[in-house]
Amino acid sequence: MAEQTVRIDGRRLRLSNLDKVLYPETGTTKGEVIDYYTRIAPRLLPHVRARPVTRKRWPDGVGTEAAPAEPFFAKALEPGAPAWVPRRAIDHSSGAKDYPLVEELATLVYLAQVASLELHVPQWRFDAAGTRSNPDRIVLDLDPGPGVGLVECAEVARWARTILLDIGLDPMPVTSGSKGIHLYAHLDGRQSSDAVSALAKELARAIEADHPDLVVSQMAKTARAGKVFIDWSQNNGSKTTIAPYSLRGRAQPTVAAPRTWEELDDPGLRHLLFHEVLERTDDPLSSIDPSDGPLRSYIAKRTAGRTPEPVPSAPHGEAPAEGLPRFVIQEHHASRLHWDLRLERDGVLVSWAVPKGVPATTGKNSLAVMTEDHPMQYLDFAGEIPRGQYGAGTMTVWDTGRYELEKWRDDEIIATLEGRPEGPLGRVRLALIRTEGDGEKSQWLLHRMKTDADGRPQRDGAAVVPREDSAPTTASSAPRASAVADSELRPMLATGATPGIATAAAARWREVWVEMKWDGIRGIGLWDGERLRLRSRNGNDLTATYPELTAVDLGLGAAPAVIDGEIVALDAQGRPSFPLLQKRMNLAQARDITQEAARTPVHLYLFDVLEADGRDLTGLPLAARRATLEHLAHATARVVVVPPVFDDVDAALSSSERFGLEGIVVKDPDSPYRRGQRTDRWLKVKHSRTQEVVIGGIRPGKGNRAGTIGSLLVGVPSFDGLRYAGRVGSGFGERALAQLSNLLEPLGTSRNPFIGVPAADARDALWVEPRLVAEVEFAEFTPGGILRQARWRGLRPDKDPADVVRED
């Protein structure tokens, strides 16, 4: 075919020799290769974006199985490459080399045009400033030695998955298109390449220790016969791995194809050809390298671990909360003082930088420059952004509240904002009018309307001036409201871990604290100087449920505070008992609560403080927060200040088991408090295996359970919906069965809420809307995700279905 020039997204590109055969055994031409990369681009690009690409080129084709052709290994971008191909320099001993970045379809097509069949990338990305970031994913390369194949690699992958899930990482498999399987898991970007490589090495050694007959972690090729080699070294900052969805330069056009775990259970598992991959519509690996979303620009400008700002793992916004949308205005002492106005919209905070702040009068407007959308967690962010990071400087919350929207167009927004009681903003009707540009860096006027929404004259406000107590000192000086909004009461969550993983993590910290794990429910307390209000983890008001904690003066001082702890009920031996607490958790009538409180009193075990005397403490290290908590709270008949009792994981585990406790929590005393985030700087290690589940169905009882519940059908949320996790039919008392019947009857529905229910379980099922969360004990998960020997522990009204994650 003659040479032709095409335009791709405005880029001019010359294509040639489209009829040239690159895969002789299948007759696959360069034109078909370009077509594949064009069609797969939406799924491939998120996995390579901002990563330097090393290529294997076969300009004359790959040859045949009997006579394979040698590739041309390309690091530096060739001199004839189009000027519009983005590139970044990486230093080598022979000098700096410019590596291509594949940010758009046009670059991908260019690489296919020059027969770059294989695209290899590291596990790290460049940030917006061109600096190498920490890795945002970990990879294990399962490479079969002589005598084994994909089926054995799949078995090892399942073993690796169990361990990775134990440390809070959710891996997904990729059949490499060559020999083995790659396992990827997303990371938060806090660890260096060296640290991630060391972790991968320890994982490989642990799997080898448990399965020495099939697994080897040594690099020596002589040790691999009949075994699967777990190559952990590809997490090294200088190493690369074949990119997901890249073609392979094999005799046939196979692909490094993301797969599902169900596919790995197939005894006929094999590598996929490019046309088979094109027939698949979903990307199973999308949770590892999320595609575009409104927060992409925000995430690209920040590196988790280098800034105290929240850095979401995915660029997507949150589901909208109930009620009026929220806003925040932050005072930002950056290179130039300005105020940041952020309005909740479609799950993110649409943001403007306002150098002069909100105009005090209707006769003077303020310039507002649109910035990138921010995550919802930014509503309460205050702290010191370190020097060298984007937006470096001190940020405090100037005012926050909710707004009533009148108009939201691309060029005009009108809304009435109402700040905190006694806050500097008050209630004000504002208009934002776009005057120049579009999107980020577009310029707007911020105008104070002459009338309010009812047409009445709107009075002037106070002039906006920097606050004396917001000078750039430390995060602890940031002034805050004495009583935060309920939407901000999101506790920091621990990540599940094994004893080995917890010990390894603790060894990397400067110091380690170990607390006992109390078998209760989380309680966030708002102290107003006289009484305590309690909120559950999902925001439910628990104040009336536990009057022995909220109807008395707990002696926490005259200043307001926000505290974090566990509500527990003690058995006769003084041990926390979740079954006992169940008697209190679901009561609603005041009379019932009073009667049961006399029989089953509760205690509040405190272990953290978020605010004290109007100061936000979340940016401080745990050790500093603990010192404040100990000064604030003193042990009483109902309040216990939980001490870190050990600095040795094994000793703490042994003691907690001896005393019949649930387990331990291993904490880094340098860790800040991350509202609503699950962190690997708090690790929970349990003695027994428990799992939160969502109830989605009932199987009617038979025999002595006729007329009531025989078993519950339960599930665990997954990326693609509520994944069926099996039946729970034991551990119920008569009271629990009666309570469940009353709660589930109004939720009846004709729709099956689960994915993957076997026909035998669905045959006589009565489906219910998946609203209730429960907790079960179990022996293990099967490879298909079914709970074995599940036993009822109780309902969890403090949890929402969206909070449930697989804990194995």
Automatic annotation (TrEMBL):
Keywords associated with the record? ATP-binding, DNA damage, DNA recombination, DNA repair, DNA-binding, DNA-directed DNA polymerase, Exonuclease, Hydrolase, Ligase, Manganese, Metal-binding, Multifunctional enzyme, Nuclease, Nucleotide-binding, Nucleotidyltransferase, Transferase
Q: Where is the ATP-dependent DNA ligase family profile domain?
A: 595-718
Q: Which SUPFAM superfamilies match?
A: DNA ligase/mRNA capping enzyme, catalytic domain (SSF56091), Nucleic acid-binding proteins (SSF50249)
Q: What class of enzyme is it?
A: ligase
- Could you tell me which InterPro entries the record lists for this protein? DNA_ligase_ATP-dep_C, DNA_ligase_ATP-dep_cent, DNA_ligase_ATP-dep_CS, LigD_ligase_dom, LigD_PE_domain, LigD_pol_dom, MtLigD_Pol-like, NA-bd_OB-fold
Which cofactors? Mn(2+)
Q: EC number(s) per UniProt?
A: 6.5.1.1
GO molecular function annotation: DNA ligase (ATP) activity
The protein depicted here goes by the name DNA ligase (ATP)
Species of the source: Microbacterium mcarthurae
